[in-house]
């Protein structure tokens, strides 16, 4: 059994990681905001140790539980809800840097950082510029910090993750909800942009493999791309879900213009992940079928929650 400190546990990826870590028998400590919605992890709350972030001092979980083996950092702020630049910077740069420094003081072995495919040198997307800048700033600080050889830093650059229960603001969720509701029309771009869609359970599998097989050795900074390794157009993604869901919604491709500096192609290089024994197991259609089953289950039960 390992002791894992998790941030972002009430979010999409974090909640899936929390469930997996509990399932395989690890001790899970959670750093969260006092106002966080706990709906996604309500069923495993008795198995979690929760800590509210109320001050810059993040040492409480380390003091209370002795040695923390690893940090899984998934908390992030996209700026979609009117957050200021300062709030975005604090969540995506200052907070994880404080946590990294604290973990090093308590001899934590490794810090696993959830990075985004937007955060590359050749991508400049204006509509997420503050988010990307803040993520990139933290990564640069982490590289400098790793040179001190106090804690190993494992950067996981995740491609376009999707799955049941994702945030309402996400493109994939909007397509799912609209098609299942049979709205009259969805306006889309031409959909020529290519993305590497990876199902959330495959991402969680990868974290489990990385926890066991990385964070050791001489390399104090390690980087891994994480995706399916396949590039699929937005149009193919939407049309596939539309067909599987038997939706009557009219897909108006070309009804919207591309955004400035639109990313037209992104795909993960999986060589390093495959060398660790990990494989992407869920195809696009299989993942979409699981989302349909999940959404129909929610409709039958009348369940809902506010995504964060």
What is the topological layout?
Elements: E1 3-7, H1 12-23, E2 27-32, E3 48-52, H2 60-65, E4 70-73, H3 85-105, E5 110-116, H4 129-146, E6 152-158, E7 160-162, H5 171-180, E8 185-188, E9 194-195, E10 197-199, H6 200-213, E11 221-226, E12 232-233, H7 234-244, E13 250-253, H8 271-275, H9 284-301
Parallel strand pairs: 1-2, 1-4, 2-3, 4-5, 5-6, 6-11, 7-10, 8-13
Antiparallel strand pairs: 9-12
Helix pairs in contact: 1-6, 3-4, 7-9
How would you describe what is shown here?
The protein is an alpha/beta fold and 308 residues long. The chain has a domain of 199 residues: Rossmann fold, CATH 3.40.50.720. The protein is built from 9 helices and 13 strands. The strands form 4 sheets. It has a 7-stranded parallel β-sheet, sandwiched between helices. A two-stranded parallel ribbon has the order 7-10. β4, α3 and β5 form a beta-alpha-beta unit. α3 packs parallel to α4 and α7 packs across α9.
Short note summarizing the structure:
With 308 residues, the protein is α/β, with parallel strands linked by helices. The protein is 37% helix and 19% strand. It is globular.
Question: In one word, what is the shape?
Answer: globular
Measured distance between first and last alpha carbons: 29 Å
CATH architecture of the domain at 3-158 and 198-227 and 268-280: 3-Layer(aba) Sandwich
CATH superfamily of the domain at 3-158 and 198-227 and 268-280: NAD(P)-binding Rossmann-like Domain
> What portion of residues is helical?
25-40%
What fold name goes in the CATH topology slot of the domain at 3-158 and 198-227 and 268-280? Rossmann fold
Number of helices: 9
Structural class given helices, strands, pairing?
A: alpha/beta
Rg, nearest Å: 19 Å
- Could you tell me the mean pLDDT? 91
Return residue spans where pLDDT drops below 50 for at least 5 consecutive residues: 304-308
């Amino acid at each position: 059994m390992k002791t894992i400190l998790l941030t972002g546990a009430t979010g999409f990826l974090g909640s899936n990681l929390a469930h997996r870590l509990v399932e395989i028998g690890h001790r899970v400590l959670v750093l969260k905001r006092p106002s966080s919605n706990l709906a996604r992890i309500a069923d495993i709350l008795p198995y979690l140790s929760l800590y509210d972030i109320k001050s810059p001092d993040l040492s409480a979980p380390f003091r209370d539980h002795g040695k923390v083996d690893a940090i899984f950092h998934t908390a992030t702020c996209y700026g979609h809800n009117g957050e200021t630049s300062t709030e975005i910077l604090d969540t995506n740069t200052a907070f994880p840097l404080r946590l990294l420094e604290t973990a090093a003081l308590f001899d934590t072995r490794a810090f696993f950082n959830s990075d985004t495919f937007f955060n590359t040198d050749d991508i400049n997307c204006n509509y997420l510029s503050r988010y990307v800048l803040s993520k990139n700033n933290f990564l640069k600080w982490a590289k400098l910090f790793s040179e001190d050889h106090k804690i190993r830093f494992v950067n996981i650059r995740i491609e376009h993750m999707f799955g049941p229960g994702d945030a309402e603001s996400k493109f994939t969720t909007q397509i799912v909800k609209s098609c299942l509701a049979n709205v009259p029309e969805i306006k889309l771009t031409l959909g020529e942009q290519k993305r590497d869609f990876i199902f959330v359970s495959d991402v969680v599998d990868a974290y489990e493999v990385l926890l066991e097989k990385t964070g050791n050795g001489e390399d104090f900074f390690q980087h891994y791309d994480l995706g399916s390794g396949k590039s699929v157009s937005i149009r193919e993604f939407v049309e596939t879900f539309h067909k599987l869901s038997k939706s009557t919604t009219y897909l108006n491709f070309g009804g919207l213009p591309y955004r400035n500096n639109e990313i037209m192609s992104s795909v993960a290089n999986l060589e390093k992940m495959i060398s660790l024994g990990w494989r992407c197991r869920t195809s696009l259609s299989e993942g979409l079928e699981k989302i349909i089953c999940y959404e129909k289950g929610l409709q039958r039960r009348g369940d809902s929650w506010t995504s964060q």
